[in-house]
Every structure is written in structure tokens, then in C-alpha cells.
Specification:
The complex is a heterodimer of chains A (130) and B (302). Chain A is α/β, with parallel strands linked by helices. Chain A is built from four helices and five strands. Chain A has one domain (5-121): STAS domain (Transcription Regulator spoIIAA). Residues 120-130 of chain A have low confidence and may be disordered. The chains are: A alpha/beta (130), B alpha/beta (302).
């Protein structure tokens, strides 16, 4: 199933609606990275609220998206990780190091706003310290 | 002659069934113990005091308990059933465990009673060695079984209390409190084990979501000791919270814990740590953009 990618201002929003196969994930990665350039996006939000499982491939793909998007000039936030999923992830050692996370879409947008204001001096992977 | 009922679930199973002969001997024995009740009971209480058992109780209390233990003991010998004794042992344990009576004391006093009674049997039958032998054959298995019953009853009661307390502690153990909009604190007191860590993390993650928290201060002033396991569990909790978009500040690492962690080489560089809870809350407020000022500085004078 293809993941819809929405454009909102300078941000791209990919909202995952159901469990994804590895092929879907790879397709999502390619589509996002391509669109970051096409739309000159400054931020990417991947919403995983609907996922109740995340395996190592999914986590790696999300991390790759974040790193690749950064190389193309956009900051990525993963939003909506469920508490159970978060707990399972840390137990498996999948911690999305260096990738920003936020509670939900609203928080993610707020984070990107702040990151945009901070210009090139963006926070990397955690809430900015004053 | 009435058939004697046997206690099937007694701990000391596998005793030979008492024959009519031993039944008669036991009856004789019980009659003797009833007759000399006062004197034997006093002798027993004396020996308890001399052996310095039950030091948590006064002499009157010891004597009162000794009386009821004695009567229950003799009754168990007479009827051969242990239900009443088991119930009594449980009841006794319930009363004396909170007062700090130890297992060795309970076992000790029952064994003392067994010895006191055996001595008195020696005294009564010392002229008829053959009879003494048969009496002891009847007495010893029953007496050992009584000792066993009482000891098992006591230990079971103790374990029940321990289980109960563990549950109570677990329920009380992890309050997640909101101190400001989007700021939670989680004071941890006591030992962190994997099970508790799991429960604590789940509770924290749920609270982060329901309160839409951005910053969490975990205060571990109340954690006495920490090893690499506990530290790694803490790191996991911090990581899991970050995945939900919350920054975690850990406060109250004691000097001992700091030294241990550095010595055993646990890497906590990923974790934001602040000296005490106050500092942690101040840091959290800064992250959230709060600034706490005394009123005079806010309201213009005049």
C-alpha cells in the first residue's frame, strides 16, 4: 500500500495508515527523498501512529529517511510512536539515535517551526536547549 | 474402638498407620500429659526463657501462649488430626510475626516442648524399658509431625505476608506527577528490578501521552544502589520516552552511584543529568520556556 505524502507549507507529511511491507517502506523512502528536492521542503514528518509493531527494517528505514533528508536540506521528525512500540523498540535496541521524535503531528509541526527559525543552527535529534 | 482419622495433607506424610496398639499407647500418653499439665507447662516455659527464645515477648505472654500451644499439642496427639493445630499455628504466626519472632524461635520452642514431654516420659516409664520403648515409638512420629506442621504453618504465613507486602509496594511504587503543563516528575524510591522497570516505563509512557508531556524529570534520590543492569534499564526508559518526543532529565544521583557507574564503565552520556530535583525542575522549566520570578520583580513598583 502506498503511503500518501502531503505537502503543507515547507513541510512534507507522510502519514502511514496500515502495516507496511519492506517494499512499501523502501518505496516511501525513495518518494520522500525525491519530493524533498522537488518541493524544496525544509521539514519532513513521518506519522507512525497507526503502527502497533515496528521491526528493525522499519526503524532502519525511518533513520535512513532522516539522514538522507538532512543531506537534502530537510529536518525529519518521527511522530506518534505508541508507548508499547517505544518500549519494545528500546528492548530490541532500536532507538532511532540522532532522529528527532515528537508526540504527535501537532508537536512535530511545532518542532519544525522552531527548527526553521533556528536556521542552520538546527537541533539534531533532541529538543533544543536554550 | 474408634478408628482414627488420618491427616492426608500433612507435611510428614508416609508415617505408618497407627495400629490399635499404638493408639492405646497414645491414649495412655495423653492421659499422662493431661495429668501433669501444670508442671510440664511450667518446665517448658522455663526452658524457653533459659534458651532465650521469644525475646520479643513478655514472660506472661510466653506463658499464655505456651498454655495454648501445650493444649493444642496434646490434642493433636490425642486425635491424630492436624487441622486444628494447623489453624492454630497460622493464627499464632499471624499474631507473632509482626512482633519480630523468627523462624528458629518457633521451631525451637516446639522442639523444646517435644523434649520436655519426652523427658517426662522417661521419668514415668524408666522402670519398664520395654514399655518406654513402645511409648516412644508411638510418641516420636506424632511429635515430629506436630513440629513439622507448626514450622511449615509459620513459614507459609511469613511467605504470605511477604507476598502481600511486595504487592503493596509495587502498587505504591511509581507515581507519575504533573508539576506544570507538559512537565512530569517521576520519583523512584527503592530497588529497580526488570519487572518494576517495565511497569514503571509503561506507566511513564502512558502518562507522557495523556499529559502531552515534553519534559520528564526522573528523580532517583531514593535509589540506594545501582549496577550496570539498573543503569541500562534507566537508559531504556529515557530512550523510550524520547521516542514519544519527551526529553528526560535524571536527577539525584548520589555520590556513591556516580562513582559506581563511572567505575564499572556505564555510559550515561546520552542522558541529561542534574544534581538535585530542584535543579532538574529548573532545567525543565527552561526547556519549556518558563521563567520563575519573585512577585516583586514582575509587578512594577509604585
Amino acid at each position: 500500500m502506498e503511503v500518501p505524502i502531503l505537502k503543507q507549507g515547507q513541510n512534507l507529511i507522510a502519514s502511514i495508515q496500515s502495516a507496511l511491507t519492506d517494499a512499501d517502506l523502501s518505496q516511501l523512502r525513495e518518494a520522500l527523498i525525491e519530493r524533498v528536492g522537488r518541493f524544496r521542503a525544509r521539514g519532513v514528518i513521518v506519522d507512525v501512529t497507526a503502527l502497533d509493531v515496528m521491526d528493525s527494517f522499519a526503524v532502519r528505514t525511518l533513520r535512513d529517511i532522516a539522514h538522507m533528508a538532512r543531506l537534502r536540506g530537510a529536518e525529519t521528525v518521527i511522530v506518534g510512536i505508541q508507548p508499547e512500540v517505544a518500549f519494545a523498540m528500546v528492548q530490541l535496541g532500536l532507538t532511532l539515535k540522532g532522529v528527532a521524535t515528537a508526540l504527535d503531528l501537532e508537536e512535530g509541526l511545532a518542532f519544525l517551526d522552531r527548527a526553521g527559525q533556528a536556521g542552520l543552527d538546527r537541533p539534531r535529534g533532541r529538543i533544543e536547549r536554550a | 474402638m474408634p478408628t482414627r482419622s488420618k491427616d492426608r495433607e500433612s507435611p510428614a506424610a508416609g508415617l505408618p498407620a497407627p495400629t490399635e496398639d499404638t493408639a492405646a499407647l497414645l491414649r495412655e500418653l495423653v492421659a499422662h500429659l493431661r495429668q501433669n499439665r501444670t508442671q510440664l507447662r511450667e518446665e517448658w516455659a522455663r526452658r524457653i526463657t533459659r534458651a532465650q527464645l521469644l525475646t520479643a515477648m513478655t514472660e506472661e505472654e510466653i506463658f499464655a501462649e505456651a498454655t495454648s500451644v501445650y493444649d493444642n499439642y496434646v490434642e493433636a496427639l490425642e486425635t491424630g488430626t492436624f487441622e486444628a493445630l494447623q489453624a492454630y499455628a497460622r493464627n499464632l504466626s499471624e499474631r507473632i510475626i509482626p512482633r519480630g519472632v523468627e523462624t528458629h524461635e518457633v521451631v525451637g520452642i516446639v522442639l523444646l516442648l517435644r523434649d520436655v514431654l519426652a523427658r517426662s516420659l522417661f521419668g514415668k516409664y524408666h522402670e519398664d524399658f520395654d514399655k518406654l520403648n513402645r511409648i516412644l515409638d508411638a510418641y516420636e512420629p506424632a511429635a515430629n509431625r506436630i513440629a513439622n506442621t507448626v514450622a511449615v504453618g509459620f513459614v507459609q504465613e511469613r511467605e504470605r505476608i511477604i507476598r502481600q507486602q511486595q504487592e503493596a509496594i509495587r502498587e505504591l511504587s511509581t507515581p507519575v506527577l504533573q508539576v506544570r503543563e507538559r512537565l512530569l516528575i517521576l520519583p523512584i524510591i527503592g530497588v529497580i528490578d526488570p519487572q518494576r522497570n517495565r511497569q514503571l516505563t509503561e506507566q511513564l509512557l502512558r502518562a507522557i501521552r495523556t499529559n502531552r508531556a515534553k519534559v520528564v524529570v526522573i528523580d532517583i534520590t531514593g535509589v540506594a544502589a545501582m549496577d550496570s543492569n539498573v543503569a541500562n534499564q534507566l537508559v531504556q526508559t529515557v530512550e523510550a520516552s524520547r521516542l514519544l518526543g519527551a526529553t528526560v532529565i535524571v536527577t539525584g544521583l548520589s555520590p556513591e552511584i556516580a562513582q559506581t557507574l563511572v567505575t564499572i564503565g556505564v555510559d550515561l552520556s546520552e542522558m541529561a543529568t542534574v544534581g538535585d530535583l530542584q535543579g532538574g525542575i529548573e532545567e525543565a522549566e527552561r526547556l519549556l520556556g518558563y521563567k520563575v520570578l519573585p512577585l516583586e520583580e514582575v509587578t512594577p513598583k509604585g
